[in-house]
Amino acid sequence: MAVEKMSIAKALNESLRLALDTDPKVLIMGEDVGKLGGVFRITDGLQKDFGEERVIDTPLAESGIVGTAIGLALRGYRPIVEIQFDGFVFPAYDQIVTQLAKMHARALGKVKLPVVVRIPYGGGIGAVEHHSESPEALFAHVAGLKVVSPSNASDAYWMMQQAVQSDDPVIFFEPKRRYWDKGEVDTESIPGPLHRAVTAREGSDLTLVAYGPMVKVCLEAAAAAQEEGKSVEVLDLRSMAPIDFDAVQRSAEKTGRVVVVHEAPVFYGSGAEIAARITERCFYHLEAPVLRVGGYSVPYPPARLEDEYLPGLDRVLDAVDRSLAY
Predict the structure, then answer these.
(1) Which residue, 56, 85, 165, 307, has fewest beta-carbon neighbours within 10 Å?
(2) Which of the residues 104, 130, 131, 262 is marked catalytic?
(3) Is residue 141 annotated as part of the catalytic site, yes or no?
């Protein structure tokens, strides 16, 4: 067993390196991914080792980057596209939702588009406008796209491998404020299927459901609640499309209370679908309504206010208390 301790950024870099080394049809494309190694250095050293024809610095044109990746995929390549920041994806949104997501169905299953679109997302880094968005629900709503987000280094390493090997397009949201969080990665043992939720912490009184950057916050909340005698389970979804509703249901039936947490605005967020589905499935097991904690329905604020905007420990614990008070 080869276990290494590495940051999420390093795990992604090692996973991309392995993908390039394993399959000559794998390409990486994006703004500054080559010589610079990406603004977060996720692709650091890859162009040097694999050449400019495999790790391609593109013009500043997200629609063109994704459109080119679609053409390459049609010719048998497996492109990995980097969108430099979350708010920059919208010029490519048309290509993603009208072409990338639809081609498999349009061709009656005869054409596959194995494209991975990497998007650093979320706040917490003190960035300027358009650099701290959480647009995952926009993509999870689109049939034909897989949407995933790792919360730790091990998942970052293995979920990237699985995304690259997928014959369907995958939107891979990387929690940018967690890039430097470290964890153990077993590079020889696949942890499980790409879209399976995992229990990050066992509990019996209430379930916190989260993904990506909010999993760490929920684990901290569960630890704080434990000091007050409350047993809180944390479920890491890992995938927003498809969602492992069976895992959420099992936990909901076990604890009787569910709080869904994400950075994105609560209004029309992923938590709304989870709350509705779990209410349908678990109505007679629930001891309280499914509650949601998330961002506010406003444009992402300037950096000096983002601590007020982002769901933190206090807001999660407040939801825990409200749920347990029913």
Answers:
(1) 307
(2) 131
(3) no
